[in-house]
Amino acid sequence: MPTAHPPTSNAPNATSSDYALANEDRLGFWADQAGRLDWSEPFTEVLDWSTPPFARWFVGGRLNAAYNCVDRHVEAGQGDRVALHFVGEPAGDTRDITYAQLQAEVSRAANALTALGIEAGDRVAIYMPMIPEAVVAMLACARLGAPHTVVFGGFSADALAGRIKDCQAKLVITADGGYRRGDPSPLKPAVDTAVTSCPTVSHVLVVRRTGEPVEWTPGRDVWWHDVVAAASPHHSPEMFDSEHPLFVMYTSGTTGSPKGVLHTTGGYLVQSAYSFWAVFDHRPDDVYWCTADIGWITGHTYLVYGPLANGATQVLYEGTPDTPHKGRWWEIAAELGVTTFYTAPTAIRTCMKWGDEFPAAHDLSRVRILGSVGESINPQAYEWYREHIGGGRAPVVDTWWQTETGAHMITPLPGVRSGKPGSAMTPLPGISIDIVDDDGNSVPPGQGGYLVATEPWPAMIRTIWGDDERFVETYWSRWPGYYFAGDGARRDNDGDIWLLGRVDDVMNVSGHRLSTTEIESALVSHPSVAEAAVVGASDEVTGTAVVAFVILRDSASPSDDIVEALRTHVGQQIGPIAKPRRISIVSELPKTRSGKIMRRLLRDLAEHRTTGDASTLADSDVMAQIAADLTPSDSPT
Fold first, then answer.
1. Residue 439: how many other CB atoms lie within 10 Å
2. What's the burial of 211, exposed, middle or buried (CB within 10 Å: 0-12/13-18/19+)?
């Protein structure tokens, strides 16, 4: 087992007393955390669980999410504090936006949306690059009580249309395009195509970002700079019931078609605010940076709602980490004095692949907290991250949660618990987690099982949009009263939790249950490997055969020798049974924008099937690229 790293010596926000308070009175603990927000009317009941699995948190309370994220900070005298350090991809394209400026812009946008006919309850689709107007659009919707659905700007017109139609959006907010790897990347054409099949859409509100020419439909299309800039900077937010819908987030999971996950206002905002403050040990002078796109749940909870509810100052970056050079992230972090950095293991492994010299060229001495999100971070990436980005001193908080959970569920708290490279550690205070067997019984330490939530939590999914039956069947039907996350996990002898990946990614090879995560970690521990994905392919002899797709570090070259060396390495790390039957060297892996590897598509390749739905990939061309990398000699068979 990797060596545990001690907690930081800095006095943390959250302490071990939080665990004690939550264990003694879980609902009382969450009632206390609700005090982090401003309520226009107090709640009369913390939790109504009378008709499970349909929860109602902070019953009777009324609040406004945008007011809690913006206005109250201005009213408290913090209007001059920078809310967003925006860094565009083009050189010199920066903007600092204070809370007072954000309040004025959100108010203008809310007034403009009202003029376009948007009322409380109307749905709004947002399809934008990573620019401040995207954050403003989300908050303007929240201010009006109009649930938003944010769609990643790399999704196709068909994917966008499907989401618009499912939630019957009345308005689409987009941009002419954004910048990606040095060039303008158009967005408006996809919207034009999508809305032709979406009769509920009455207007398309367009931000001019790149200045590229776009098709225009008079009467439907409206320029942001025409209607928002002309609107009043004053707006009185309406207060809404704690269970008023805040947003619908369509999952970009590893299996099946996307589902519209509904999150409501009060419970979601309470857990978002608390977890941001506690997990990142947030302090008023911190500069926080979450690299996630707002089209992913992490961008909602830990770029918009959680940080802004805490009055945080944060970085919003439009571009990619390698434009115009592979040290761009670290250059920005040094220039802006970033103290807290939150990204995905896939991004960390990519930076490892590029080399240590890129972060070493920049002063990252202010970094004191590092976060990981998306998939379990393998120990080698954890150690590299801590050493080369955190200077060997910053703790790594490896956070486990999902679109459906809304906010962090399992993670160490810096300064409270020591971290173990590769372990998500323990549930947050107020969160009840167990690992169970097929019969729903808790499993002993060292034994793998299914990860479940045994009690409701504030930021939990309320339902699947328009389909309560699917909600119950998908998440609550396997064991009565338990939310099944779909992940496998085990506890070690200290009681700390290690994620084993999706249960459909646990392979049965000759009667032995093998975790894809464990084999991937073994592969990445080899000095030639930057990243790996492992799937199980049908095999007449063993039942399932291990097939690996590997990205090498820039310093390594593909060869039969390296493939055999990797097979041998896995055998030494885990055992001969875990040796991949086939290892394919590829230049990229299919990932969602959240950084999750879509092993389902790799399994299709491994079994020579037509690949399934790839609409949720961050790069729609990646499957063709992988297929081109595979030669007859190394293609999975």
1. 6
2. exposed
The position carrying tokens 């040094």 is 334
> Is 396 in a helix, a strand, or coil?
strand
Give the integer Cα–Cα distance in Å for 516 and 501: 7
Gyration radius of the chain's alpha carbons: 24
Distance, in Å, from the CA atom of 9 to the CA atom of 6, rounded to the nearest integer, reads 9
Q: Domains in the chain, please, with CATH?
A: 1-64+239-502 (3.40.50.12780), 100-237 (3.40.50.980), 510-629 (3.30.300.30)
DSSP, res 233: S
- What global pTM score does this model have? 0.83
- Put residue 480 in one of left, alpha, beta given phi > 0 → left and psi -120 to 50 → alpha: beta
Please say whether the beta carbons of 550 and 556 come within 8 A: no
Say what angle helices 266-279 and 26-33 make with each other, to 10 degrees. 90
Could you give the CA distance from residue 308 to residue 83 in angstroms, rounded to a whole number? 7
Q: Does the structure show a pLDDT above 70 at 504?
A: no
In degrees, rounded to 5, the angle at the alpha carbon of residue 13 between the alpha carbons of residues 36 and 594 is 80
What is the phi/psi pair of residue 592, to 5°?
-75, 170
Q: How far is CA 530 from CA 422, 552, 631, in A?
A: 16, 5, 21
Q: What is the pLDDT of residues 266-291, one digit of tens each?
A: 999 999 999 999 999 999 999 999 99
Longest dimension (CA), the chain: 71
Q: Which tokens hold the place of 371? A: 């976060």
Q: Are 194 and 160 in contact (CB under 8 A)?
A: yes
Q: How many CB atoms lie within 10 A of CB 332?
A: 19
Q: What is the pLDDT of residue 253?
A: 42
